[in-house]
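Re: beginner question about structure tokens

> Can someone show what the tokenized structure looks like for a real chain? I only ever see the sequence side.

Sure, here's an example I had lying around. Input first:
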Amino acid sequence: MQLSKFHIGLIQMACSADPNENQAKAEWRIREAAGNGAQIVCLQELFRSQYFCREENARWFDLAEPVPGPTTGALARLARELEVVVIAPVFERRAAGVYHNTAAVIDADGALLGAYRKMHIPEDPLYFEKYYFTPGDLGFRCFDTRYARLAPLVCWDQWYPEAARLAALNGAQILFYPTAIGWHPSEKAQHGAAQHDAWRTIQRAHAIANGVYVAAVNRVGYEGPQEAGLEFWGGSFVADPFGQVLAEASHSREETLIVECDPRRIEEARRDWPFLRDRRIDAYGGLLSRVID
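And the corresponding structure tokens:
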């Protein structure tokens, strides 16, 4: 485990309908984050476009690109110039008819270390992701970067304790969750506060249960037609290994969070609350079943 402190940057953006405009904004904000001390910068899920999964329309497949490809290439050049690690969520075209929701990891020398493909794919009103994305087949991966060992997970993955646990067991010091989550206009008044609180709570729980840092980066802004779109709730945040929130963004503004992470906190948390030590690995076979009938 690397023991040096490291600084992360979370870029919370609103996205336009123009992918080139979003790409330019993201690159400018990476520069800003690096200038303010960030060494690992994470962009939000599908940052180059608006969240197209609100509808099922084959034209959106035209947004997909290979990995490595144009987006990862541009960000690799920027990472090398600024000496920062970049977590770059992209709509990956793997082959004709096979697409993934992917997070590429670019090291501080510009090397593409690899990619994580979103494992859990939702299918809900205005979140029609099963139409677009093939479930990931690379497992829950960790990457040794210049500054830390990290695990990227993506949005819907953040509700699954199994994903966080496997990443932690593989040595991740920090879990990054690039995200696109928001309120349905018809539900916000009655359920909005509780929905956001559940989202925040489950990720803090991953930090506590595994003794790791957790960083969630979400988008902001309203996308789609009135009363039939999504209001993305922002709220990007970083939790330490005790689940304490170190920094948190607003629900409505574009912001960049810069947060210091100290790996010694991982050691402290796991000494005080040795959950990994006390796991009953001989008794968890049922987790491999869909349900226990």
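Each token stands for a local structural state, so reading them left to right follows the chain. Helices lie at 19-35, 70-82, 161-169, 185-210, 264-272.
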